[in-house]
Amino acid sequence: MGHILNIIIKFLVLAMCFIYANLLSAQNTILINGTVYDQTKHVPIAFANISVKNTPTGTTTDAMGRFKISIASEKQTVIVVSHINYDKKEIIVTDSLFSGNISIYLTPKAIQLSDVIISAGLYEQSLEKLTTPANIISHREIVDNMNSNIIDVVASTPGFTQVWEYHSPIILRGLNSNRLIIMKDGNQRIGTFPGGYFGQDMNIYDTKKVEIIKGPASVIYGSGAISGIINVISNEPFGDNKNSIQLHSGYGSNNNEFLEMIKLCHKKEKYGISMNAKYRKTDNMIYGDGEIAENTNVEDRDIAINTGYKFSDKHKIILNANYHYGDWGKPRGFNGPTKRFTEVRNEEENLHTDIAYTYSTKKFVESVNLNLYYDNGWRDYYQYKYSMVSGSLSSLDLVHYKDNYGGGRFYTILNIAKNNKITTGVDGYIFRLDNPTEVFDYYNNTQGQIEGYSNAGQQNIGMFINDEWNISKKIRIVSGIRYDIAEVVEGQSFENTERTENRNAVSGNAGMVYSFNENTHFSFNAGRAFRMPTTEELFTTIISCKGIKMGNPDLLPEYSWNYDAGFRGSALNQKLKYDFALFYNSLDGFINEAPVVNNPDVDFTYKNTDAKLMGGEMSASYRFNYVFAPSNTLNIGLGAAYVYGIDLSNENNEPLFGMPPFKTTG
Questions:
Q1: Could you tell me which of 106, 98, 105 has the C-alpha nearest to residue 71?
Q2: Which of 209, 363, 439, 631 lies at a 20 to 30 A Cα distance from 187?
Q3: pTM for this structure?
Q4: What strands lie across the sheet with 29-38, from one edge to the other?
Q5: What is the spatial distance between Cα 151 and Cα 160, in angstroms, rounded to a whole number?
Q6: Exposed/middle/buried for residue 247 (C-beta within 10 Å: 0-12, 13-18, 19+)
Q7: Number of Cβ within a 10 Å radius of residue 653
Q8: How far apart are CA 429 and CA 409, in angstroms?
Q9: How many helices (H) and strands (E) does the chain have?
Q10: Mean pLDDT of the chain, nearest integer
Q11: Residue 215: its pLDDT value, please?
C-alpha cells in the first residue's frame, strides 16, 4: 500500500510540474489574429501559408483569409506569408502587432509581371516610367495560344504584321527585322535572310516573358533598333527548392498541327537547372479560301538548357544553351506570292549559347553586368529557274548558308542620386557568313558548284550612356547618346577580291513622362536611331525569295528621326487599362531595293533613298471580378493599329513593303 501511495505522489508532482511549465510557456507566447488580402483587389486570400521563420510552427488561412498563430514574445519573430499565386512576404513582429487583428497584403505574381519591364533601361522599372510604348507577353499566353515561334507570339500585338506563315519577316510599324532587334535574354540574334532575323529557330517556350519596346532604342542596343526591340527573357534557374515535370500537348485542326513539350526543373536556393524540349509536326497549310498549299508542312525540334549558380545575394552567373533543327517546305510567299514546289525540302540547324554574370551592390554602383554569347547555324535555300519557252524547270540553285557570330556587352548601373540612375557600357559583335552554291542545270544535264563568299561579314563596337532622372513625382526625364564604329568585310570570293568598308554613326534619345496622377501618364520621346549596312547589302551576291540580289558598296548608314507620343493609364479601380500611342518616323538614307537593268542575271540591288512612316496603336482591356467564383476573373481586350509608309525616292510615293491595313485584335 505504501509503495502504491509513493507512485501516486510522484505522479502528482510530475503533473504539477508539467502544468506549471505550460503556464510559464503560455505567459511567454502571444496569439496573433490576422487576415491576408489581395493587394490589388482587396479580397481575402484562402489557404495562404503562415509560418514562423526558422521554426516548425505554422498554419493556413481559412476560406475568409483569417488565421491564428502563437509566437514567442521574448525575442524578435519573423512571420512568413506565402501562396502559389502571390509573392512571398516576411513581416517582423513588433509590439504594435501584439494586440488586435493585423491585415497582410500580398502582391499577385501576374500583376507584378505585367507591370515591370527591364529591356528599356537594362534594369527593372514599371511600364508607366517609359517614354515609348511597351508590351509584355507572359509565358502562359504563349502556351495557351499554342504559338510555334516568335512570329506567332507577337502577331496579335498592335503594331506587328505577319505577311507569310512559318518563315516570315517580323514587321513592326512597317519595318522588317533588319530595323527591329530581336534578342534572347538581351543577346542579339542575327539572321541570314534579306528580311532580317525571322525567329523560327528560337525556342519561345523556354521563356518567362517577352518584352516589346516600340520606338527608337539605338542608344542602348545599337544598329537596327529603329522601330523597336523584342527581348525573349528566360526564367532564372535558382530560387525556391523544388523539382517539377511539366507536360503539354496541343493540336490545331487547320493543318493537323501537333505540339508536344516537356520541361524538367530542379531548383535550389543557390543552384538550379531546367531543360525544355519541344517537338512540332504539321500537315500542309489550308488557306482561307480552302486551298491546300502543297509542301508547306513543317517538322522542327528544339531543346533548351538553362542553369546557373548564385554565389551570394550579390553574385550570380547564368548559362543558356539552345538547339534547333527544322525541316520545312515552301509556304506561299517564297519565290513569289503564288509559287509552291512539291519536291524539295528545306533544312536548318542552329546552336545558340550565352552566359551572364551580375554583381549587385545596391549602392552607388548598383550593379556590374557582363553578357557573352555565341551563335552558329546553317540553312539550305533553293532558287528555281524556269524555261521561258517550255515553262518547265530548267535549273536549280542550292545555296548552303553558314553563319557564326559572337559578341557581348559590359555595362554598369550607377545611382548618381536617389532619383537619378545612369546606365553606361560598351558592346560589340563579330558576324561571319559563307554561302557556297550547288547548281543543277536540267536543260543541259550538268551539275556544278559556285564557291560563293567565304568569311564575309561585319564587326561593330559601340559605347553608350543613358540617364534617367525623376525630377519629381510627376516628371521623369530620359536622355542618352551613343557612338558606333563598324567594319564590313566582303570576304573571299571566286574572283579573289576582298574589300572592306568602314562606317560610323552617332545616335541619341530624349524623352519625358508626365504623370497627372498615379494612374494617368503622358509621354513624349524624340530619338535618332541608325542601322549599319551589312555585308549582304554592300558586297555579296545572294539568292533570296525575291530573286538574285547584288550588293552595293556605296551604301551609307541609314538614320531615322522618331517621334513618339503616348497616353496610358488605368481607371475604375484599375479594372480598365488603356494605352494610346502615335508615331512619326522620318528615314534618311533608307536602304531600299532597286532594280538592275544592265545585268540580266541579277534581279535587284540596294540604294540609299528617303522614306517616312506614320501611324499609331491603341489597346484597352477591362477586368471583370468574381466570375462564377471569387477567385475567377474575366479579361476582355481590344487592340488596333495603323501605319502608313511611303518611299520618297520617286514622284509616285510608292508604299513600303509590308505596310498593313487597319488592324484590330481582340
A1: 98
A2: 363
A3: 0.79
A4: 66-72, 29-38, 101-106
A5: 9
A6: exposed
A7: 11
A8: 9
A9: 6, 38
A10: 83
A11: 92
Give the pLDDT band of residue 283 (cuts 50, 70, 90): confident
- Cα separation, 152 vs 165, whole angstroms: 9
DSSP string, 263-319: EEEEE-SSEEEEEEEEEEE----B-TTS-B-TT--EEEEEEEEEEEEE-SSSEEEEE
Contact 428, 460 (CB under 8 A): yes
Q: Tell me which residue of 77, 89, 78 sits closest to 39, measured CA to CA.
A: 89
The CA-based dihedral angle spanning residues 303, 230, 483, 530, taken in that order and rounded to the nearest 10 degrees: 120
Phi/psi of residue 220, nearest 5 degrees: -95, -35
- The H-assigned helical ranges of 466-594 are 535-538
Burial (CB < 10 A; 0-12, 13-18, 19+), residue 486, is buried
Any bridge partners for residue 211, and if so which? 136, 231
Backbone angles phi, psi at 661, to 5 degrees: -75, 180
d(CA 114, CA 135) in angstroms, rounded, equals: 9
Q: Cell for 129?
A: 516610367
Provide the pLDDT confidence category of residue 385 given band limits of 50, 70 and 90: low
Q: What span, in angstroms and rounded, lies between the C-alpha atoms of 430 and 408?
A: 10
Q: How many CA atoms lie within 13 A of 102 on its CB side?
A: 20
DSSP string, 575-610: TEEEEEEEEEEEEEEEEEEEE-SS-TT--EEEEEEE
Catalogue the long-range contacts made by 302-305 (C-beta closer than 8 Å, 24 or more residues apart): 302/203, 302/205, 302/206, 302/276, 302/277, 302/278, 303/203, 303/275, 303/276, 303/277, 303/278, 304/203, 304/205, 304/206, 304/234, 304/275, 304/276, 304/277, 305/273, 305/274, 305/275, 305/276
pLDDT at position 470 is 93
Instruction: Give the pairing type, strands 228-233 and 242-252.
Output: unpaired
Q: Do the beta carbons of residue 312 and residue 295 sit within 8 Å?
A: no
Cα–Cα distance measured from residue 195 to residue 537, given in angstroms and rounded to the nearest whole number: 11
Q: Is the pLDDT of residue 359 over 70?
A: yes
Q: Which burial class, exposed, middle or buried, applies to 576 when counting CB atoms under 10 A from its CB (0-12, 13-18, 19+)?
A: middle
Q: What is the pLDDT of residue 333?
A: 46
Q: How does DSSP classify residue 454? A: B
Which three cell numbers mark 367?
A: 550593379
- One DSSP character per residue, 310-328 reads E-SSSEEEEEEEEEEEEEE
Is residue 254 classed as helix, strand or coil in its secondary structure? coil
